[in-house]
Specification:
By secondary structure, this protein is an all-alpha fold. The longest helix has 25 residues. The radius of gyration is 17 Å and the shape is globular. The N terminus is likely disordered.
Amino acid sequence: MTHSFISNDYNREPYIPASLSEIYDLLGSMILWAPTFDKNGTCPERNVESEFRILTEGFGKVRKKLGEERYAVLTDLAARARALFAENPQDNNGKTDEGRRLLYEIEDVIQSARSRRVAAKLKDEDGEVSGD
């Protein structure tokens, strides 16, 4: 009998961040790995399209916490950053730095939403005032 450690029911769908802090964490890795999001060529499933899909779907999961105005700002910033990274896969024309600046702006919007939630003493899913 042969045992295989590879399961046929492997979930190929990426994890979508479900809280403001998880989105913030994702942004840190995106800033680090831009513009291709797979610097070593070891994760071909990680690319500009997949990473920004994960990011924007995360925005959708926390849309109520963000409010419509912040949500619109974030989706616009993400679309602009995605386009800049797509135009500069070799990181040789300055657009990666512009894209990173937009990711930092997204971080600022996320942190602003978290600070607002803490100031208003809004509880997260665990019943704690955490900013999530």
